Amino acid sequence: MKGCKSPMVKRIDAHQHFWRYRAAEYDWIQPGSPLARDRLPVDVRPALEAAAFDGCFAVQACHSAAETDWLLALAEANSWIMGVVGWVDLTAPDVAAQLDRYASRSLVGIRHIAQDEPDPRYLLREDVLRGVRTILGRGLAYDI
Questions:
Q1: Model confidence, pTM
Q2: Of the CATH numbers 3.20.20.140, 3.30.1330.60, 3.90.950.10, 3.30.40.10, which one belongs to the domain with range 12-143?
Q3: What does the alpha-carbon distance between residue 84 and residue 81 come to, in Å, rounded to a whole number?
């Protein structure tokens, strides 16, 4: 079409982890594994640039509000971290209040590693469904 410009397409890594490694918090990482070390923006950015990525989304790796706060701080300090998929306690009656803490920040979704739950019907529980409905009602993604 004459006079019509193509929108600029960005290449984005949609699932990138960052952490300050502590075995007790990241117990799914085997001791001695190449993952058993800090994974910080300075470690990741060169690989993203080499692969011609414009940025990434940071995704939680443990069930921790403190980690979500830290990831959001990383996103604020690094403009190429375009958003955060964090964690809140889906089963808590105060899910809305938990989300309110992040309302003005770059939170784009919530992730809970459901396969770690001992209850095979975890995702069907009413408290979990209430939490997911609250997340979706805020326009956030639920990363399963």
A1: 0.89
A2: 3.20.20.140
A3: 8
